[in-house]
Structures are given as C-alpha cells and as structure tokens.
Amino acid sequence: MNLRTYRAKTMQEAIALVRRELGPKASVLHTREVRGGGLLRWLSGSRLVEVVASTSVSVPSRLPPRRRPVETPRQPPAPATVARVAAAPPPASLRNDLQDQLSQLQSTVEDLCRRTTRATRPDLNDSLFRLFADLIEADVSEELARDLIERVRQQSHADELSDCAQMKTRLAQIIEEEIPIAGPIQITPGRRHLVALVGPTGVGKTTTIAKLAANYRLREKRRVGLITVDTYRIAAVEQLRSYADIIDLPMEIVATPREMHQAMARMADLDLILMDTAGRSPRDEVKIQELKSMLAEAVPDEVHLVLSSVASASSLSKMAEQFAAVGTTALVLTKLDEAASLGNLLPLVRSSRLPLSYLTHGQNVPDDIAPADRQRLARIVLGLETVSGK
Ligand SMILES: Nc1nc2c(ncn2[C@@H]2O[C@H](COP(=O)(O)OP(=O)(O)OP(=O)(O)O)[C@@H](O)[C@H]2O)c(=O)[nH]1
Ligand SMILES: [Mg+2]
Fold it and tell me: What pLDDT does residue 57 have?
C-alpha cells in the first residue's frame, strides 16, 4: 500500500502537492493540523496542514478533478477572490455530500488501521508488504503468509525485491512447488480400473463422476460404467441414472457386499468403473466405517476424496484427516468458481499427503472440470489467473 504524507501551510497547497505528485486519482485518507518545524515555523506560524494520500487505496472521496484554469490570461484570479468564495457558507447539498465523504473516509481509515494492525510488517519493503497483504486478503493465514514471504525474500537478490510483479511470480513458483499432483486417471486398455469418489455431502461427487464419465466415454472413447452405493436416497440413484442414460453407460446399484461382487463381475470387461458413494459427515464414525467396509469389498484402484473449495482451511484439513480412514489416494477440489478466495486451500494441499487429481469450476457436465495443474492453481490463488482461465 502506497501511503504518502504531505505538509504545507494551507490545505489548498497540500492538496496541490498531492495532485502534482500522485495525480488526480489520488485518494486523501487523512488530514490534520501539525506543528511546523525549522524554517517553516518562522514562515507560517507554528501550524501546518498534513495530508495522507494514496493512489493504491480506492475510496469514494477521491480528489475532484483539477478544474480547468479560467481562460482569462490577462486577469488571473486574485487570492482575495478565492478567499471570498471559500468564505461563503456552502449550500446544504454540499454540506451533506461532505458529511457523507467524511464518514466514508473515517470508515476507510478505520479499516486501514485494522488491516495494518493485523498485518503490520515493518521489516518488509513496499512490494513484499503488498504481497503479504495480498496473501492475507486471499484468506491465507498470517503464519503461512509470513512463512511464504520469508521464502520469497530468501530466494531473491536485494535488487529484485522492489519489483512487485517479479516477487509475485516467485511466490507463485514457491507455492506451486508444494502442490502434489496425481494427474488424471490413467487407464490401461484391457485392464479394468475402478475409481471411487468419496466425501462429505453435497460437495459435487455425483456431478464430478458425470463429468469424468462423459469425458472418458465421449472424448476418449473408453468403455465406462457407473456403480452407485448411495442407495439411501432414491433421488441420488435417479441423479446418477439420468447421467448414465444421457451418456449411454451401464449402471449398477449396489446395496450389499454380495451385490458388489456380482456388479463387479458384470462389469469385468470395462476400461473404467466410476463408483459414486453417499455423502458422509466425517464426524460420523459409524458411517465412515460402513463406507470403508463397502470399499473393502470393491477393492478400488483409486479413492478420490472430493472436497469443496468453499470450505474453511481448518475444516478442509480435518475432513482430509477423517476420510483418510477409508483409504483415500487422491484429492478432487470442486466449486473453485464459487469461492471468493482460495488461499484456504493452501494448508490442505501443502500438508496433505493426497495429491490433487482434478479441479472443477462449475455445474456444466462435462466441461467444468480439468486435471489438476499446480501452476494454474498457484496463479489462481494469487489472483494472477481466473478460475475460468479468462
Ligand atoms: N458451482 C459449482 N457447483 C457445483 C460444482 N460441482 C457440483 N456442483 C453443484 O453442487 C451441487 C451438489 O452436487 P452433487 O454432485 O449432487 O453433490 P454430491 O457430493 O454428489 O452430493 P450428495 O450425494 O448429496 O452427498 C449440485 O447443484 C451441483 O450442480 C462446481 O464445480 N461448481
Ligand atoms: Mg451424490
């Protein structure tokens, strides 16, 4: 954040200084009277006006655009005229307007104070501090943000540190290096590959299965089948069945271990079987054990944990820990399009033993899914790229 402080004898002079140095879009954040020092004390009496301004903070109280000089070259406005105009009482509408602007200024300054108290790093130069503030705004915890910035600093030469764009690119690289990637599901022709999707309720398991099935069947021309063990709700079975019908896939509904063996035997000649499971609260240990037993019957090659990127950092980490009991092997992050910021994903992807397989970014089947890409994810977290890639 670029805050500049100016002092002058009058408010007009201070504002003129702000305009000259920061341009017409500068926002005045704070004004006050201060005691002058040195020569100025003799020239102006003991009081000076101090103005704090910035071009990087956007508040509604921006300086009004510089008025064009009146085109009367032979008669420039005399100071006395300006003084008379300034002395006239402002109309009520202007007073209200000023009052509004003052309230907005006050809340902006309060907000700035809060943010700088939370994130003050007097040891950081401007560009590192800006990166630090960006991370905090992206919902990265202060501790992790501090750690990342420290590593940026360690990996940079002193003369690079003031280049904000370069520092951000380096930060993206550091984040990217820590994201383990599983890559998309690999199919060996002639060998049946079973992939189960598990996770909490409503995170997008069934939709992700539909996206994967449609891509492998329609784009890669693989022989794909669906199994659901989510037999608790008729709607859940019907949801998967309608995708199976549209994509034209065989589908099995499995409620018992015996049915599981039979279904697997019927699907033995397929390339890929995608298994949908019921959403489970990770705190419900009984249901987690049930899921584990059902998976033990099927012996999947891969178990992808599906988590919504809208969840908080702490609940994501807890869910990953609790679902580990069922033998998770990879991580799918959904709803990237819905998350206001994605810094909450960093603790999970950095610390989890689960490599990322897919990222999903919308409800459209089959388009809104992509194999996880560490560079893309790091850039999205830092706001260098949008989720939709536009
Ligand atoms: N915005 C957005 N919505 C998604 C995404 N993936 C799934 N959804 C939506 O999330 C809702 C729940 O999706 P489901 O696929 O039914 O979720 P589920 O995990 O199978 O839910 P349960 O079976 O009830 O546990 C639906 O409205 C989906 O369209 C995504 O990437 N972005
Ligand atoms: Mg479902």
Answer: 59
Instruction: Please answer whether residues 320 and 348 qualify as being in contact, where contact means their C-beta atoms are separated by less than 8 angstroms.
Output: yes
Ligand 1 atom closest to 209 (CA): 15
In the chain, what are the domain boundaries? 1-63+102-119, 121-177, 193-381
Task: Profile the chain (390 residues) by mean pLDDT over runs of 10 residues.
Answer: 76 76 72 61 60 64 38 46 52 81 77 53 72 87 91 89 89 94 91 96 97 96 96 90 96 94 95 95 87 93 97 93 94 95 90 92 96 94 82
What CA–CA distance (Å, rounded) separates 296 from 314?
29
Of 281, 331, 273, which Cα lies nearest the Cα of 306? Answer: 331
Encoded amino acid at 47, one letter = R
The CA distance from 357 to 339, in Å, is: 19
Pure H helices in 7-141: 11-22, 38-44, 79-87, 92-119, 126-137
**Distances in whole angstroms, Cα of residue 331 to Cα of each of 203, 294, 296, 359, 371:** 12, 20, 19, 9, 11
Whole-number pLDDT of residue 116: 53
Among all bound ligands, the one having the nearest atom to the CA of 333 is: 1
Q: What does pTM read for this prediction?
A: 0.72
Q: What is the pLDDT of residue 93?
A: 79
Q: Which of 198, 201, 207, 243 to mutate to test the pocket of ligand 1 (most atoms within 8 A of CB)?
A: 207
CB 352 within 8 A of CB 304: no
For 6, the 3-state DSSP assignment is strand
Strands 47-54 and 27-35: antiparallel
- State the virtual CA torsion across 314, 380, 307, 148 in degrees, nearest 10: -30
Domain 193-381: CATH superfamily, name plus number: P-loop containing nucleotide triphosphate hydrolases (3.40.50.300)
- In testing the pocket of ligand 1, which one of 363, 364, 367, 380 has its CB within 8 Å of the most ligand atoms? 363
Task: Determine the distance separating the centroid of ligand 2 and the alpha carbon of 186, expressed in angstroms.
Answer: 23
Residues with CB under 6 A from ligand 1: 201-207, 230, 236, 279, 334-335, 337-338, 360-363, 368
Cα–Cα nearest to 313, from 120, 118, 142, 173: 142
Q: How far apart are CA 221 and CA 213, in angstroms?
A: 10
